Amino acid sequence: MVDNNQTNYPEPENIQEDLKISRDMARTAVEALKDKLGEDIRILDLHKVSVIADYFVIAHGSNRNHVQALLEAVEEKLEEAGYEIYDKEGMGSFTWGLLDCHRIIVHVFTQEARVFYNLEKIWSQGEPIDPEEI
Q1: Distance in angstroms (rounded) separating the CA atoms of residues 74 and 105
Q2: Does a structural domain hold residue 24?
Q3: Helix or strand or coil: residue 87?
Q4: Which range marks the domain in which residue 106 is found?
Q5: pLDDT > 70 fraction of the chain, expressed in percent and rounded
């Protein structure tokens, strides 16, 4: 018999700890993007509106090679910090790519691809966070 009073949701203190880990991951990604001169770095807090991830980190590079360098730098920094990359997409196109770390998803585009995909508009219900304050 199923006890309908039980939930599988984490306790509030666990949620806060999970969000702290996600925030630390986002901070690590932002640092890597800044180190490689990523452009227009944005963070969207999605934890209240989506189960996909707690945060999107979005940036663009000046050209295809820059996009690739940004993705590689973020991947390296996250792995050095002990975070696992679960999936990578678009790495061969060099106009966009993403790194899925379950808690955060890092999106890097060329400027043209970023305008085309317009994630900031699609995910406008997410709360923008200043990358300097993460």
Answers
A1: 11
A2: yes
A3: strand
A4: 12-133
A5: 90
pLDDT value, residue 7:
42
Q: Map residue 10 onto helix, strand or coil.
A: coil
User: Model's pTM, two decimal places?
Assistant: 0.87
Spatial CA neighbour of 117 closest among 67, 69, 71, 59:
59
Q: Count H helices and E strands in the chain, helices first.
A: 4, 6
Tokens at residue 83, please? 């975070």
Query: Measuring CA to CA, which residue among 114, 126, 130 is closest to residue 26?
Result: 130
- CB neighbours of residue 123 within 10 Å: 16
Four-CA torsion 62, 67, 71, 74, nearest 10 degrees: -10
Residue 1 in domain? no
**Which residue has tokens 């730098």?**
73
51-83 pLDDT, tens digit each: 999 999 999 999 999 999 999 999 999 999 999
In a domain, 106, yes or no: yes
Q: How many domains does the chain have?
A: 1
